[in-house]
Write a structure and sequence with these properties.
Layout: E1 4-7, H1 11-25, H2 29-32, E2 33-34, E3 40-43, H3 54-61, E4 67-71, E5 80-84, H4 87-97, E6 100-102, E7 107-108, E8 111-114, H5 128-133, E9 137-140, H6 146-164, E10 166-167, E11 172-176, E12 179-181, E13 186-188, E14 194-195, E15 198-199, H7 206-215, E16 223-229, E17 235-238, E18 249-254, E19 258-263, E20 269-274, E21 279-282, H8 284-288, E22 291-294, E23 299-302, E24 305-308, E25 312-318
Antiparallel strand pairs: 1-6, 2-8, 3-5, 3-8, 4-5, 6-7, 9-21, 10-11, 11-16, 12-13, 14-15, 16-25, 17-22, 18-21, 18-25, 19-20, 19-22, 23-24
Length: about 325
């Protein structure tokens, strides 16, 4: 255990952290902490809020036999929970780490045995779980290659430098085929990329659209909105205009992973991890009824670990609804 330095327990600091735990979880210290080994450790002073990343905490504990997982929190809770297969496994890690300074974490770890387990945030759905849990969503990871991703980002930066950017409050956008008019929630039906054959999508999207048609039942879209998000920005819950676009809505993610939330009419929210280079198709119920959005924050909680966000680009492909063709959703609150 070369990463662990000499014993440096800090009783006053430990008591302060225990009192914080008691206050935030609304239980007494005696209810929260066990004097005997249990399967679950509490790291009183190791959390994202205390500048500890999920990968650092994971690498500190996963070297011990019986390690299962770590559960962290977003926000102001300065502690994390570490799960082991048995009391003895947890006690082994406790004896090696508690009160010792870790080179990985650059701090003295203050550990306790958990007597009570809080409710952790709902798990983020990943890969096939997305398709299985949300009606109308189709998710395909690694839809494009890393080299294709890098080339697309390069092209989008050039297009932006050539005047394609439109500045919104929290993001930059580029429009192709048709321009979306945010003030009236509709498109400019005159089109902005037109040749003798009508609306023309940019050539650098051809390989994406051909792959989309070949691998799914989606027809070729005729409108593209590029979104650029700086780290920490998001987008409120919304439904893409029913009047302007038919189903489906297609999203290709570039550069950064992000957690997108889907809100049902009854208020239930399910969160999904959209990985860089992935494809997301919102069709039917997921397109017309469920709202989607991205919370503005600089990190996400994925499988119990805090993961920092980075900048992200998204390509949102849509197909214009012809004038006079009614929306088929039959919802009372249809945003026609």
């Amino acid at each position: 255990m070369s990463m662990i330095k000499k014993f440096q327990d800090k009783p006053k600091k430990r008591q302060i952290q225990l009192e914080i735990l008691s206050r935030l979880e609304n239980h007494s210290i005696e209810e929260l902490i066990s004097q005997q080994p249990t399967k679950v450790l509490i790291a009183l002073n190791a959390s994202y809020d205390s500048l500890i990343t999920g990968s650092q905490l994971h690498s500190t504990f996963n070297i011990f036999p019986g390690f299962i997982k770590i559960e962290m929190f977003l926000g102001s809770k300065p502690y994390s929970y570490i799960f082991f297969k048995s009391d003895d496994d947890a006690n082994n890690a406790f004896q090696h780490l508690n009160g010792f300074k870790s080179d990985v974490l650059n701090k003295v770890l203050l550990l306790e045995f958990a007597n009570w387990i809080p409710t952790f945030p709902s798990r983020v759905l990943i890969n096939k779980e997305i398709n299985q849990n949300i009606d109308g969503l189709t998710y395909i990871s690694d839809f494009i290659s890393q080299s294709e991703e890098e080339e697309l980002v390069r092209i989008l930066k050039v297009e932006g430098d050539n005047g394609r950017w439109e500045c919104l409050q929290k993001r930059l956008v580029q429009h192709y085929g048709y321009k979306f008019k945010y003030g009236v929630n509709d498109v400019d039906r005159d089109g902005i990329d037109v040749d003798d054959n009508g609306i023309k999508m940019p050539e650098w999207t051809d390989h994406i659209l051909n792959r989309l048609i070949n691998q799914t039942t989606t027809s070729k879209p005729n409108q593209l909105t590029v979104n650029y998000y700086v780290t920490g920005n998001g987008i409120p819950f919304h439904n893409d205009s029913h009047f302007a676009f038919i189903s489906p809505i297609v999203v290709v993610s570039l550069s950064g992973d992000i957690v997108m939330d889907f809100r049902y009419p009854n208020g239930q929210v399910k969160s999904c991890l959209l990985q860089a280079r992935s494809l997301l198709i919102m069709d039917g119920y997921a397109r017309y009824t469920i709202e989607h959005g991205i919370k503005p924050r600089k990190m996400d909680l994925i499988d119990g670990l805090v993961v920092e966000r980075s900048e992200r680009w998204s390509l949102t492909f849509r197909t214009i609804r012809d004038i006079g063709i009614p929306c088929p959703c039959n919802l009372d609150n249809c945003n026609k």
